[in-house]
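Chapter review: from sequence to fold.
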Amino acid sequence: MAQAENEARQLVTDSQQRLRDEVARLEGMRSQLATDVENMARHLEAERNRLRTMLSEVLKWVEENVQPAESLMALRPRGNGQAARQEPNRARSRTPGAGGEQAEVDEASGETVAQVLDLRSPNAAGAPSEPHT
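The token string follows.
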């Protein structure tokens, strides 16, 4: 009987030690995961800030270098090869373009702003270069 009690106590002691070891291992993993999450959050915030900066630079470039649609329409060549002045009463409407986007259409000629200057072409003159990182 005494031998069985000793074996039982030894099993309990061993089980408790294994549980303490497992808890310590899991706490270490939890600490490492918390550190990883914190590092990822800092990296994410840095990337957000970098993207904000890059988007601001692109928007500034667009504002400085891309003409509004009205000025593009005024520069459209006429049949006689001369640039025409924009007529104030010319009818325009917005209609779905080829890619589903809205396009401004001059109802007199049927041309769109995209036909005057295709800004979607990656090789268009004056297209922004890759931003510096």
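Two observations follow directly from the output. The longest strand covers residues 92-96. The chain has two domains: 1-66, 68-122.
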